[in-house]
């Protein structure tokens, strides 16, 4: 199985984000790279009507009496508002008595207009209290009538009345989600920080499949509730997964196939030993000659031309069996790289059907099976390859890669060693052996293997880059940056285009070492100037933007990462971050008074 330096890179960025997770996400625990976005502190939401602290105490008191049978994720809790009156005593008693008398009959607009402010306020409160009782007794339609009359009588818009009526609509059979949304809209117009109304509207929006709006509300509720509401936080994760999965399916069904970045493709092909070009038949056909041109373009790292030429060769027709197998192998490889896993599998299986001894095709079929989570079938392919050519060192290298990613490091090391014994000129077998030893905890042997590899391959950047990664893992920052610099130097000395991963690694190392975000961004920006489609550089810039609270830039970077994603899991991951960040950005726009406060806290937590 062909893994790349970018694979190792993404393991490291996962560690980077995990170390900084308090500053990196809100509710994206399911994302592949990390568990977080920018964590925001928010002041407690205002209790609608009446004293803030008393409102909080009332909420806590009533929350202990929740009855779980009511169909409202926020529970049947209905906030109490004590009506404000000018005087106490007998006057208050008279108002209450009159309110209880008036509650039995609906009042006309004219009758309401004749009432004093105190009378209307008292009556509205009494109607609401009756509504609460009806709600607790599961008489939801009658409760709706009481809250509706309270809204009509009240002298001003009281958000709690609308929110309580929305809770009733949520529990009708069938629920009236549209009316829930309308009432919560009214409640939030009066009090934008009303968390219960946000949660109720979010649940209704989710039920209406208005998922992005639901995510907006759940995100705001989570932040405003200071991350104390586990239900809202889980809802953010649930909605993000739903949005990202649905969007990914649409994108993949409509997106034109295309190659990943040069960095990714070149690393993939570099994981296979170079094989001699096939010998053409005595009288080659046009398709035979075109195939040879495709293989020459591949050797020259001209991948776009290699794709078009191999497709052209297949259309023209190839005259000899080995040539057909090679063409199917190459076309299947490009299909795999462009995300057409099913098409890749068909071509590669056809290749070994024609020419079973083409072990590279068996190895690539194993890669396809691993991508589909079919580990047993992958190992069966390696056994087939060994049966046909037990002396092919690539078989053992790639089997080692599969064992490595399944954390079977000892068996992986044995396979890397076997690969090197058959051919010690392949640098990646030595590098991966050193990494496997490191994972096994054999630090001295690992470092010695790396030093020996750097000596034996002085003009290769890969040993320097990988060694730098292990040094960075040990927080030996000066040595790590020195190795990344040496890798960059070696890459610049080669014919263009260069492998930019050492530049990205250097940026990440500088950030972890000095928290110098500007320097880290310069490294990633330079990498993107050289390879505009380098996904690790885009992913790092997105995370660095989150670290600084620059959510608008992070959104742009995650959108770009989604464009570059090759596989469905990569796309879902990028979309998860994109929509999580977009929801946070919308929060800062809807609550501008909190934006700078939140950005300052995000920055302080990054230090």
UniProtKB/TrEMBL annotation:
It is a single-pass membrane protein. It comes from the Eukaryota. Its main location: mitochondrion. It is found in: Mitochondrion outer membrane. GO terms for molecular function: mitochondrion targeting sequence binding; protein transmembrane transporter activity. The chain crosses the membrane at residues 23-42. Residues 57-68 have a biased composition (Basic residues). TPR repeats lie at residues 124-157, 359-392, 393-426. GO terms for cellular component: mitochondrial outer membrane. The keyword Cytoplasm does not apply. InterPro entries: TPR-like_helical_dom_sf (IPR011990), TPR_rpt (IPR019734). Keywords: Membrane, Mitochondrion, Mitochondrion outer membrane, Receptor, Repeat, TPR repeat, Transmembrane, Transmembrane helix. The keyword Transcription does not apply. GO terms for biological process: protein import into mitochondrial matrix; protein insertion into mitochondrial inner membrane. SMART domains: TPR. Pfam families: TPR_11, TPR_16, TPR_19. Residues 48-77 are annotated as: Disordered. Belongs to the Tom70 family. This is ADP/ATP carrier receptor.
């Amino acid at each position: 199985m062909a893994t790349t330096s970018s694979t190792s890179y993404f393991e490291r960025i996962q560690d980077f984000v995990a170390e900084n997770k308090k500053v990196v996400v809100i509710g994206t625990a399911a994302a592949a790279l990390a568990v977080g976005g920018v964590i925001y502190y928010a002041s407690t939401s205002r209790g609608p009507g009446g004293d803030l602290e008393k409102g909080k105490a009332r909420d806590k008191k009533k929350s202990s009496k929740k009855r779980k049978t009511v169909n409202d994720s926020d529970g049947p809790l209905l906030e109490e508002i004590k009506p404000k009156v000018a005087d106490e005593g007998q006057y208050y008693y008279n108002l209450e008595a009159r309110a209880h008398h008036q509650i039995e009959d609906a009042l006309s607009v004219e009758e309401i207009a004749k009432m004093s402010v105190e009378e209307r306020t008292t009556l509205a409160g009494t109607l609401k209290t009756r509504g609460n009782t009806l709600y607790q007794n599961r008489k939801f339609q009658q409760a709706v009538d009481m809250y509706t009359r309270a809204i009509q009588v009240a002298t001003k818009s009281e958000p709690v009345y609308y929110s309580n009526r929305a809770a009733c609509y949520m529990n009708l059979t069938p629920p009236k989600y549209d009316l829930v949304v309308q009432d919560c809209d009214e409640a939030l117009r009066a009090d934008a920080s009303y968390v219960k109304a946000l949660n109720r509207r979010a649940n209704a929006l989710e039920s209406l499949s208005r998922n992005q709006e639901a995510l907006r509300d759940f995100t705001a509720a989570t932040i405003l509730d200071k991350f104390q509401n586990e239900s809202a936080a889980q809802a953010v994760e649930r909605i993000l997964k739903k949005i990202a999965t649905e969007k990914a399916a649409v994108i993949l069904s409509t997106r034109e196939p295309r190659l990943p970045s040069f960095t990714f493709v070149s690393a993939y092909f570099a994981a296979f030993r170079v094989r001699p070009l096939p010998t053409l038949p005595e009288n080659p056909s046009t398709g035979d000659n075109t195939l040879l041109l495709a293989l020459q373009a591949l050797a020259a790292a001209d991948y776009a031309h290699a794709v078009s030429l191999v497709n052209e060769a297949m259309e023209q027709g190839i005259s000899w069996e080995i040539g057909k197998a090679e063409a199917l192998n190459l076309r299947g490889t490009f299909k795999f790289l462009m995300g057409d896993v099913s098409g890749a599998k068909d071509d590669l299986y056809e290749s070994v059907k024609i020419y079973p001894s083409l072990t590279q095709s068996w190895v690539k079929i194993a890669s396809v099976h691993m991508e589909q989570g079919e580990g047993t079938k992958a190992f069966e392919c390696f056994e087939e390859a060994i049966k046909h050519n037990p002396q092919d060192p690539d078989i053992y290298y790639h089997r080692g890669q599969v064992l490595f990613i399944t954390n079977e490091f000892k068996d992986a090391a044995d396979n890397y060693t076997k690969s090197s014994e058959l051919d010690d000129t392949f640098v990646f077998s030595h590098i991966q052996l050193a990494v496997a030893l490191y994972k096994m905890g054999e630090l001295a042997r690992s470092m010695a293997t790396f030093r020996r590899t750097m000596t034996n391959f002085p003009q290769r950047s890969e040993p320097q880059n990988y060694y730098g990664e292990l040094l960075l893992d040990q927080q030996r920052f000066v040595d790590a940056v020195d190795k990344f610099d040496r890798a960059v130097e070696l890459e610049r000395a080669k014919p263009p285009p260069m492998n930019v991963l050492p530049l990205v690694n250097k940026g990440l190392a500088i950030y972890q070492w000095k928290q110098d975000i500007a320097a880290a961004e310069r490294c990633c920006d330079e990498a993107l100037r050289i390879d505009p489609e380098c996904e690790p550089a885009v992913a790092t810039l997105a995370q660095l933007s989150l670290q600084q609270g620059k959510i608008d830039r992070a959104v742009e970077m995650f959108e770009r990462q989604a464009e570059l994603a090759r596989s469905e899991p990569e796309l879902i991951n990028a979309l998860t971050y994109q929509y999580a960040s977009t929801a946070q950005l919308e929060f800062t726009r809807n609550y501008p008074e909190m934006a700078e406060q939140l950005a300052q806290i995000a920055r302080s937590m990054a230090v």
